[in-house]
Amino acid sequence: MYANWASDPEVTRFLTWQPHPNVDATKSLLSDWIQRYEDGGYFNWVMELKETGKAIGNISVVKLKENTETADMGYCMSRAYWGKGLMPEALRAVMDFLFDVVGVNRVAACHDVNNPKSGRVMDKAGMKQEGILRVAGRNNLGICDEVWHAMIRSDRKN
Hints:
- 28% of the residues lie in helices and 34% in strands.
- By secondary structure, it is of the alpha+beta class.
- The protein has a single domain (2-155), classed as 3-Layer(aba) Sandwich (Aminopeptidase), CATH 3.40.630.30.
- Strands 1-2-3-4-6-5 form a six-stranded mixed beta sheet, with helices on one face.
């Protein structure tokens, strides 16, 4: 994780967390993730390349809103694997899990308006763009406009 994406400032450019300064920071985060699994409402996966088992990214529910049955998603991946269709594939699989197993009714995600490639991931996964919230987010570049995409249960193709 540290070597493949967590320490890369280009990967974290539009994210809300800073690149990890050392492998110990990554180890500490992983330890925290493992502890959070005990509550049963925490969803965070490491993506691995099928052919090699190499960890190449992660995808997670960053906010689960039980009162509206909504999961807000976040994801990132090693630059070496950008543009290969892997993240839309992972996002679709996670959305299927969230709809079919967890029972959510809505899966949503947002991206900085200056990062349209992330929006294309959402579109390829079947989400629909819903709108832009002006100056509603903050990432490593500062305050930004957020472009929101979502899929609701009834949007799914059976």
